[in-house]
From TrEMBL:
One of its GO terms (biological process) is transmembrane transport. This is Peptide/nickel transport system permease protein. It comes from the Bacteria. PANTHER family: D,D-DIPEPTIDE TRANSPORT SYSTEM PERMEASE PROTEIN DDPC-RELATED, OLIGOPEPTIDE TRANSPORT SYSTEM PERMEASE PROTEIN APPC. One of its GO terms (cellular component) is plasma membrane. Residues 103-292 form the ABC transmembrane type-1 domain.
Amino acid sequence: MIANISSSSSIKRANAQAPVSAFQAFCLSSVRVMQHLLRNPMTLMGSSVVLLLILVAAFAPLIATHDPIVQNLSNALQAPSTAHWFGTDEYGRDVFSRLVYGSRITLYIIGLVTIIVGPIGLLVGTISGYFGGFVDALFMRITDIFISFPSLVLALAFIAALGPGLEHAVIAIALTSWPPIARLARAETLSLRNADFVVAVQLQGASSSRIIFRHIMPMCMSSVIIRLTMNMASIILTAAALGFLGLGAQAPLPEWGAMISTGRRYMLECWWLVAVPGATIMLVSLAFNLLGDGLRDVLDPRSE
């Protein structure tokens, strides 16, 4: 009698805690992910830097102390001071303000490349892994061709064909970033296509497209999200390299790599022109790597 009462009360508590809708389930899972991320100091540090980057980009007009494009040659190459926190460049533009507005360009590149790379890599990988045979061989040989070249060299080749510019740089980086996502999605699909739930859906008469989009792709999403997050550091470095070579964002846009390129001529006397944007690139890249490590610990059950 007492055991029945206790079991019924535990069932009621479980039912009370169970989500009643998909949105509530999503909110509960998001809270659990955030709680796990906050327990790791390194992940917390990376998440804080990424959040700070987003806030700086969102409120750039309020944070910047000067116009990032307006030139003032009378203030050229001034050292860091209370008037100019990170000094000025060769045209008298405030370096701090240019860094602040440069965060918008960095997030723009990261966001567009991720939006392009994620769906393409996931689609190619799941189709290749599910069908196998000739389809798998064809897609994987194309993927191997892209992977066989260093990403920066391949991006330079695409930029040479498309021409310099911010949008062309995004396209070039995206074309060099999707193959690792495709190979990861293929590996996940190979381990899932013979699973019991997939076989059960096949026996019910579900089409291949329904199985791929409704059952296999959601199972691959966690690994793909982790890889995309960790790829953001390489996207930042590649974008900075293209900007340094004058093939990315064009002047007078305050892109971090282009700021290093223009400041290298004065780096011996005016160290802040190179050190400040270089340190920013390093810090943001490290933050995305730390965030990716934390997400892997949360979303990948094999990391436990």
